[in-house]
Amino acid sequence: MTLQQLITSAWPARAVTVAIVFCMALAMPSLASAELKLCNSTSSRIGVAIGYKDKEGWVSEGWWNVDSQSCALLIQDKLRARFYYVYAFDYDKGGEWGGTINMCTNDVEFTIKGIDNCDGRGFKKSGFFEVDTQEQIDWTVKLTDQSDPSQAQSPADNSNQTQAPSQAAVTTAPGTRRR
Questions:
Q1: Distance (Å, whole) CA 116 – CA 133
Q2: What are 83's strand-pairing partners?
Q3: What is the rounded radius of gyration, in angstroms, for the C-alpha atoms of the chain?
Q4: What is the residue range of 5's domain?
């Protein structure tokens, strides 16, 4: 057998093997990446800001614009803090998801260091709600149009539900999140 015949006869077998390996890789579930994700289960487009404490102190960041029935990746890294803070508002119907933790925000995209004297520094003061990630490295926050008893979570599934005026936020642990 000549070298050309050997290459020609071996090529189809190699191509099939490569195709099978490629298809198997696509079919395998991917490893979950560490992240903080927010899912918008409302019928409106929303704006989202987050707050957290890093090595240097408090930081607030925004805005992520999240379309109806979609998700946004807020942090694409191992979560380094147990508590994160979220403020969101409904572009279409008005209303907000907020809480009692005051942090600075701005009308345009921002990263703001510190939470003191927001007004004096030219920023707005907004009330954020707390998300307890229970020291997981991965967490999903779900915002809904209104409090729905069917969405109530039991403590056993590591979820936490936070109410806001006419709207609700549900935080979900990695074991119960959907991709």
A1: 25
A2: 132
A3: 23
A4: 1-30
